[in-house]
Every structure is written in structure tokens, then in C-alpha cells.
Automatic annotation (TrEMBL):
Keywords: Lyase, Metal-binding, Zinc. Belongs to the beta-class carbonic anhydrase family. Catalyzes the reversible hydration of carbon dioxide to form bicarbonate. This is carbonic anhydrase. One of its GO terms (molecular function) is zinc ion binding. Its cofactor is Zn(2+). The lineage of its organism: Bacteria, Bacillati, Actinomycetota, Actinomycetes, Micrococcales. One of its GO terms (biological process) is carbon utilization. It comes from Micrococcus cohnii.
Amino acid sequence: MTDTATEQTPLTPGRALAILEEGNRRFVAGTPGHPNQGADRRSALTQGQNPIAVIFGCSDSRLAAEIIFDVGLGDMFVVRTAGQVIDDAVLGSLEYSVDVLNVPLVIVLGHDSCGAVTAAVESYATGQMPPGFVRSLVERIIPSVLAAKQNDVHDVNGTVAEHTDQTCDRLVASSRSLYRAVRDGRTAVVGLTYSLADGTAQRGRVIGDLEA
């Protein structure tokens, strides 16, 4: 079991991803190590934080990132919105994680049966938009629905995977800070799609050099 607190040298994006994938395998196998969750770890973090990755994921209650990747306090900087929809607060949070905390890896975490993506698929099919601010979420996901259909993908789960990849692209296109971090090899952006049934997180889009 990897204790991320023992990582002394700066992590490459690939090494950070490997730690998370190792944790996910433990979670899937039902043998989590629960690292970095004790009183000593809590005390050690009072003076600062040094997360190995930032997770930008869906707000779904079944998508608890620290549990899925079997990590603990201070290991991940987590940003969540329904359907992992991007807004200014999201971009500001991700830029802070990369430029101030020097996080080497940005993960975009989607999941199958996503309610927000389902609503976008249904709205596109029927031409009816949901009320209130849910409409704003759906409007921001519709471009991913269109991209999926252009690739002959029409089901919700296939659209989720496309939306996760599209979100990776939009982050780098929307933020000069993230673009520069990827260009300079300081970070990489990776899309993962989580399976609610078996707990696995499958790789999708990779932007940047994992071994930089």
C-alpha cells in the first residue's frame, strides 16, 4: 500500500495517476488501506497541504473521490459540480490547485448513469428544458451531447464518456493557466469514467505528458 505522505520527491503526473489507480484497485477488490486518515496525519496538515492531484468530478453522492481512490486527508484537492459542469468558480479553483499548490495532475471524473447528462440527453431529444438553474447545467452539457451524436453515440453512458473527454478539452481551452501548466509539463489532464456497479475508473482523454 502506498502512503502518499511518504512521497518526498515531486511527483510526475504519471506517478500521481498510478497512486490513484492503485488505490482504486484496492477499493474495487474490497481491500482498502485507508491511508493518511489518522490523528497524526490530521496534525501534520495544520501548516499546509500538498495534494497529489485535483479531482474535478460530479456532485453525485456515490462519487466520493477519496473513497474511490483509497486516499486520505490532504491527498486530493476536490472540486465538484453536478455533471462536472465548468463555471468561473471551478476554473479559479483548478487554477489555484495548479499554480499555488503545484498539483501535478488534474482528473476529470465522470460516472455512468449521470443524472445531469441524462437530463441533457432528454432535453435535446424532446426540445424541453428543465426549469430554474438546472437549465443552466443542461445548457452547458448539450455541446457534449452534440459531440457524442456526431460520433454516433446516443446512449447516456456513452455520452457521459464523451462529456468527460470534452470537459478535459474545455478546461485547457478555457484557462490560460491550465494550458500553460500542461504545455510546460507541470501538470496533465486525464479523464476518468467511474462505474457505479463495479467501482472501476476507466481512462479516457489524456492531455499532456504523464511522465514529464
